[in-house]
Amino acid sequence: VGEPTAEKQLGDTLKNGRRGSLSGSLKVIGKQGHIAYPHLADNPVHRAAPALAALAAEHWDDGNAYFPPTGFQISNIQGGTGATNVIPGDLDVKFNFRFSTESSEGSLKKRVHAILDTHGLNYTLDWSLSGQPFLTEAGRLTDSAKHAVRQVCGIDAALSTTGGTSDGRFIKAIARELIELGLVNATIHQVNENVELADIPKLSAIYQAMLADLLAA
User: Fold this and answer.
1) Which tens digit of pLDDT belongs to each residue from 127-177?
2) How far apart are CA 146 and CA 206, in angstroms?
3) 4 domain-assigned
4) How far apart are the C-alpha atoms of 156 and 149, rounded to whole Å?
5) Cα separation, 68 vs 94, whole angstroms
6) Could you give the CA distance from residue 152 to residue 202 in angstroms, rounded to a whole number?
7) Domain-ending residue, one of 131, 160, 187
8) Contact 87, 38 (CB under 8 A)
9) Are residues 167 and 115 in the same domain?
10) Core-most of 55, 101, 107, 114, by most CB within 10 Å?
11) Strand, coil or helix: what is 188?
């Protein structure tokens, strides 16, 4: 897959796997009321805070030789009417896991629900899986790619599974082995995203060298 995998120069990095991505949309339900009468309300922010702290502090796994440990990040928190004297009726929280092959979609969901339930929250939680983790272990395909990079660019490519999700997650389901090798990603998703024009024919030469090597085997 021609994803932009290089970090500083063409060929320095190729991806032999990617972490999975699992997002959650949590709504903690309380009871709206006046700040001066907290006994007549139920503040969802106060109720949720210890649970969110527990989720942020949780050790999800240790990763492995190919993947860093699974990470959990809260991306959005929204609650209240904007008034300073009103206890909100609910709290919306969005979070995301980037998870290794040491965890699964099911295990992460189960552990999140267990933490929320332990804190006695009244909540709803919707999940969205945008990609499962995948891995191609070092072998014939990665060796061919590294040899082609060395031949064209004169450097040794490093294997990596860092970064976000990619189109590789769709192809992996039908591919026995899969790697990603492409242009420099230094300006990825930035305004005026760009690449070196001189790298394009070099990348084509890398692909051609890989095909010649693999088809000759």
Assistant:
1) 999 999 999 999 999 999 999 999 999 999 999 998 888 888 888 888 889
2) 9
3) no
4) 7
5) 22
6) 7
7) 131
8) yes
9) no
10) 55
11) coil
